[in-house]
Amino acid sequence: MMRDTVTQGDNEMNNGKGRLVTWLFGFGAVLGTAMLVAGCAAPAPSGALARFDLGPPTMPVSAVAGANSAAGAAGANAPASDVAAASAQQLSPLKVVVNAPSWLDSDMIYYRLPASEGDQARVYANSRWLTSPARLFGDRLRASLSVDRVVLAAGDPAAAPALRVDLEEFAQYFDSTSASHGVVQVRATLFDGPKLLAQTTLRAQAPAATADAAGGARALATASDAVQKQLIQWLAGRVPAPSATTRAPAQSRALPATSSAGSSPVSASAPSR
């Protein structure tokens, strides 16, 4: 499947270059052919690489943000008690870690051809992420969550529930030579100390404006924001206040599977509640 295929990297991509060209001409789309073949050509010098990220973070409108905006709109001379009341709505702190399989722990930008061409993932030769998708997604998620709660690193000694997000898919899917979309899928697991509270799988996709790496990067940014919005909604009401279980000795506070290079299965699962 995908993870077995992508580890072969650019060598497999170059070996399958003729197959890609055949598929493209089968559609008879000369413009689309030029775009995709250019993306799959032999690697160029690093100085010629185009670099992409997910763009500036988009802050979700939360209850706390709305309260703070309302307080600001009331005027700079609003009573201190009103400002304090808005601040008191901050949610419980949360430890956050984002895991990813090895193929997503690099700067490669992956895309998939239609299912008729086989279940293979390929990489753009002349385009890269600024850093790994796991890091890009994680930084964006922490920025979104920090709107209404304190976000801590997995190893922080402070007592707090923990959220582990396993990034399972982060790629551009081609439906034809001229149409594609970005797909992001994650598995989210919420812990209170060693206790598993809930788990869910979230997925979103967004159309790409252009059939190239730039279009794929923008589509993946949109899909990432959609998944993170789902995640924040899923967390609502599920994150408990820090309990006695999170005040155990340091070795008991470690968040399971904190490695960013690969994800490991959860020992037990619980349905979304």
From TrEMBL:
Q: Mark the transmembrane ranges.
A: 20-42
- UniProt biased composition (Low complexity): 256-273
Write the record's keywords in alphabetical order, separated by commas. Membrane, Transmembrane, Transmembrane helix
Q: Where is this region: Disordered?
A: 242-273
Q: Residues in domain ABC-type transport auxiliary lipoprotein component? A: 79-230
InterPro entries to which the protein is assigned, alphabetical: ABC_trans_aux
Database matches in Gene3D superfamilies: ABC-type transport auxiliary lipoprotein component (3.40.50.10610)
One Pfam family here: ABC_trans_aux
Q: What is this protein called?
A: ABC-type transport auxiliary lipoprotein component domain-containing protein
Please report the organism this UniProt entry assigns to the protein.
Answer: Pandoraea oxalativorans
